[in-house]
Amino acid sequence: MEADATAARDHEDQDEYILLDLDAVNDLISFPPNANYVLTGLDTLNPVLIIDDKFKLIGEYEETIGTCIAFEEQDTPVVHEETGPSEANLFSGTRLIDSSQPPTKQVRPVCQLHKVLKFKLSPDSEIQSRTDEEAN
């Protein structure tokens, strides 16, 4: 019994990561990368995302199939390690950054995802009413 209670507590303490998918609205609205947003109702079936107090998006969860991993990309400088017993090699065993080479991209896993939250425009979103006005 005690093992079950411990396992339940451990499961509750785990972080859960969710991917916010805005592909369906990407062509309809444009907002700056640093736009203010409010995300509410993550524990409901249809969370709401409001961007810049203008656009209201309604989300719907989709379970991932298989393993879904999110990655992070970082610029890293090109590093050369000096090796060898050469008497002329004053920097043996040290690492030198090659400033003549552009930085390379390094990718590392950030988290494993179990859900994707896909968003669509809410019928009462400002962008929807602007589109209707332009049609008239």
From TrEMBL:
Write one Pfam family the protein is assigned to. Answer: TFIIIC_sub6
**GO annotation terms (biological process):** transcription by RNA polymerase III
Tell me which residues make up the Transcription factor TFIIIC triple barrel domain.
12-120
Question: Which terms in the GO cellular component ontology are assigned?
Answer: transcription factor TFIIIC complex
* PANTHER family (UniProt xref): GENERAL TRANSCRIPTION FACTOR 3C POLYPEPTIDE 6 (PTHR21860:SF2), TRANSCRIPTION INITIATION FACTOR IIIC TFIIIC , POLYPEPTIDE 6-RELATED (PTHR21860)
Which protein is depicted? General transcription factor 3C polypeptide 6
